[in-house]
Amino acid sequence: MILPPFEYHRPDSIEEALEIAAGCSGDFDYIAGGSDLLQNYKNRLNPRGNLISLTGIREMHGATEERIGGLTLLADLERNRSVHPALRTAAALVASPLVRQQATVAGNLLVETRCFYFNQSEFWRQSLGYCMKAEGDVCLVVPQKERCYATYSGDLAPVFMVLDATYRLVGPGGHRDVKARDFYVGDGIQCNVKKPEEILTQVTLPADSHSLQADYKKLRVRDTLDYPMMSVAASLRRNGDKVGELHVVVNAVDTRPLPFEDYTTSLHGRRFDSDFATEVSCEVRDRSRPVKTVLLSTAYRKKMIGVYLARILKGFIEATA
Q1: Would 1 disulfide with which of 42, 185, 251, 308, CB 3.0-4.6 Å?
Q2: Three-class SS state of 25
């Protein structure tokens, strides 16, 4: 399909990008790799009159143990031995090798929410009826006019959340740092706290994040191309044979990644063994309520939450046996 017309801008600095955005009267999108944005533009899903490319901004490239630039390619993250292994795992599970050579860290964190009714061609949407995320005013998943149920499906976000990462947002008024766990809010249309004019420039990780055991597992129909239809990330710090710190995030079942901090905090001090892993996996599964926005059934996705989390937690046990 052919892209709609737009004006393309290529600034060399964050300041120049913000200046261009200020002159677009809100009719713009920032673009990095474009692997998600451009396919939506081809489907005429909320295209803008201006695209501001960030790829020429050097300070947003590169990754170290504690800092990852927003424009770091997923392929480079996958190969970078200085970053946490769980991040390399998540990056390697995104789409296909060709897409990972184009897609960026910030782009994956800000990936558009998805829905069976939304991610279709203009002709398809017109034949069925438009939804509130594009052209219409009714959610077709749960028919009403108050909330969009499109699902968040970025692969890196749940891992950054369990590693206690922080996102840096830069806008006209300066910069602000937001915890990954606090970044994703709202519904399928307004799904995070980033303002339209702000740029996600980098992600920082605590110095002790590498001491956490962490892993990520993803459910999809095809091993390449598909977005997650459910995924789970978890991290663990032990005090001997006891739980010192445990974080779990379930993803791609709701409009945002779902942390289970209230529950997992109550588990600190418990003995970490196979029975514990089974108990936690079942509890997180039972507390989860997947939304029907993809082809796989909600019942199957719910069941697999428990299966995948159990595999992660029991993998932590095996890794130190």
Answers
A1: 42
A2: coil
Cβ-Cβ contacts under 8 Å for 266 (sequence gap 6 or more): none
Q: Take residue 273 and report the two structure tokens written for it.
A: 């063994």
**Which residues fall within 8 angstroms of residue 216, CB to CB, at 6 or more apart?**
86, 89, 90, 93, 155, 158, 159, 231, 232, 233, 312
Encoded tokens for 11: 């600034």
Mind listing the pLDDT tens digit for each residue in 247-256? 999 999 999 9
| pLDDT value at 321 more than 80 | no
Domains of the chain and CATH, by start: 1-56 (3.30.43.10), 59-204 (3.30.465.10), 209-319 (3.30.390.50)
Inter-residue contact 131 to 117 (CB < 8 Å): yes
| pLDDT value at residue 314 | 98
